[in-house]
């Protein structure tokens, strides 16, 4: 068969390739004293709380399973608008909110609506691989700009300005970021938006981990910086609804009918049952449970990062959000007699039955010496992981 050049430009998602290898090994060691511990996938170990499950069940029993408007249930768009006002003190009218089949669909719609063939989108290196592939699928080019620990592994206004060229269309940011768990400092984000705006460009920002911010100085939405900022969000991370495939995007008024037309053709609508269930996410008792879980994620971070540093798996920037640790494994790899994060990850998988993610997926700027640990697992599992690391490299 002959496949499109577009399809051939999309690289494998190596996070999932490593996960498949870990799952296969896990079956053979499940009955041993050291079954596999999974610290590789960015998926909360929590699932939807009771009110959300009950809302889904009611929707099923009531037959609320038919198509919704392509923009999403009006009640859900209003609820999301209310959440922005309550949580972030930002007025985001429901008319600018588009409910999507996960943040992935939101990014696809945004890229297809805004990027033409040959357009360049500036992104930080490291960054989440699928984001650059959405750009590529829209026939644009993701331009990865190396970042440093001093920059919190995020783009700066100076770097955006220096990299801007004749083909540059805009920037695609993430705050907090996957794989680093770091956010863009608010003043720096404002400067980036100003640089992009002055050039008539677009600012796309992935805020799917924003609800899981742990430091007050960083937990602010970029939507406060103007109506031309396009924000992508999701019910997967803070709201613990990964497999429900539900997200949303906030876009300028002029973009709403364009996205609606595209969504009608590409998706029809997001899952109706998931939308009805998500209404219960904003109930006071649900928010209280999500906040309890956010505190648990923070406690895991506060335990695990110092332990990694103690073991020589240096985390150069303390994550301020999400549930990741971006660790320099070069010293630990040398102790094990392997070279680079890919071999180090497989060495941990086979010798310690510990699944982590090598840096390969996330770019090329020093990613060969970094691995990503996910702390979206129980404290007991994190403690056991530390014990195994101690035995192997301590």
What does this structure look like?
The protein is an alpha/beta fold. It contains 14 helices and twelve strands. Strands 2-8-7-6-5-3-4 form a seven-stranded mixed beta sheet, with helices on both faces. A three-stranded antiparallel beta sheet has the order 9-12-11. It has a two-stranded parallel sheet with strand order 1-10. Helix 5 packs across helix 6, helix 7 packs parallel to helix 8 and helix 12 crosses helix 13. The longest helix is centred in the last third of the chain and has 27 residues. The chain is globular and about 55 Å long. The mean pLDDT is 96.
Please describe the topology of this protein:
Blueprint: H1 5-9, H2 14-29, E1 37-38, H3 50-61, H4 74-88, E2 97-100, H5 102-114, E3 120-125, H6 129-137, E4 141-146, H7 157-163, E5 168-174, H8 186-198, E6 202-206, E7 229-234, E8 247-250, H9 256-266, H10 272-278, H11 284-310, E9 324-328, H12 330-336, H13 340-351, E10 354-355, E11 357-358, E12 370-374, H14 379-393
Parallel strand pairs: 1-10, 3-4, 3-5, 5-6, 6-7
Antiparallel strand pairs: 2-8, 7-8, 9-12, 11-12
Helix pairs in contact: 3-10, 5-6, 7-8, 11-14, 12-13
């Amino acid at each position: 068969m002959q496949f499109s050049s577009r399809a051939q430009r999309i690289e494998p998602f190596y996070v999932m390739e490593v996960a498949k290898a870990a799952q296969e090994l896990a079956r053979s060691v499940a009955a041993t004293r050291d079954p596999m511990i999974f610290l590789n996938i960015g998926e909360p170990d929590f699932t939807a709380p009771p009110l959300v499950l009950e809302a889904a069940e009611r929707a099923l029993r009531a037959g609320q399973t038919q198509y919704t408007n392509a923009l999403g249930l009006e009640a859900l768009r209003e609820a999301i608008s209310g959440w922005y006002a309550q949580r972030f003190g930002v007025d985001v009218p429901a008319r600018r909110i588009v409910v999507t089949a996960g943040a992935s669909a939101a990014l696809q719609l945004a890229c297809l609506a805004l990027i033409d063939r040959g357009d360049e989108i500036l992104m930080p290196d490291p960054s989440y691989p699928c984001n650059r592939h959405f750009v590529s699928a829209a026939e644009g080019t993701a331009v990865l700009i190396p970042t440093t620990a001093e920059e919190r592994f995020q783009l700066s206004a100076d770097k955006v300005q220096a990299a801007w060229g004749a083909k540059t269309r805009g920037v695609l940011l993430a705050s907090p970021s996957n794989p680093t768990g770091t956010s863009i400092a608010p003043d720096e984000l404002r400067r980036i938006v100003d640089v992009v705006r002055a050039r008539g460009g677009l600012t796309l920002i992935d805020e799917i981990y924003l609800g899981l911010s742990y430091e007050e100085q960083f937990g602010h939405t970029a939507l406060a910086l103007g109506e031309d900022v396009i924000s992508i969000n999701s019910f997967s991370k803070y709201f613990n609804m990964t497999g429900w495939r539900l997200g949303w995007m906030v876009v300028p008024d002029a973009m709403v009918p364009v996205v609606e037309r595209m969504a009608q053709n590409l998706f029809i609508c997001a899952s109706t049952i998931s939308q009805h269930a998500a209404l219960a996410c904003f109930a006071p008792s649900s928010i209280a449970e999500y906040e309890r879980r956010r505190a648990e994620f923070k406690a895991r971070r506060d335990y695990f990062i110092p332990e990694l540093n103690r073991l020589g798996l240096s985390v150069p920037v303390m994550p301020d959000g999400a549930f990741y640790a971006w660790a320099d494994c070069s010293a630990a790899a040398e102790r094990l007699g392997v070279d680079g994060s890919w071999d180090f990850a497989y060495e941990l998988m086979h010798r310690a039955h510990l699944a982590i993610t090598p840096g390969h997926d996330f770019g090329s700027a020093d990613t060969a010496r970094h691995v990503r640990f996910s702390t979206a697992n129980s404290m007991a599992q994190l403690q056991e992981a530390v014990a195994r690391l101690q035995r192997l490299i301590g």
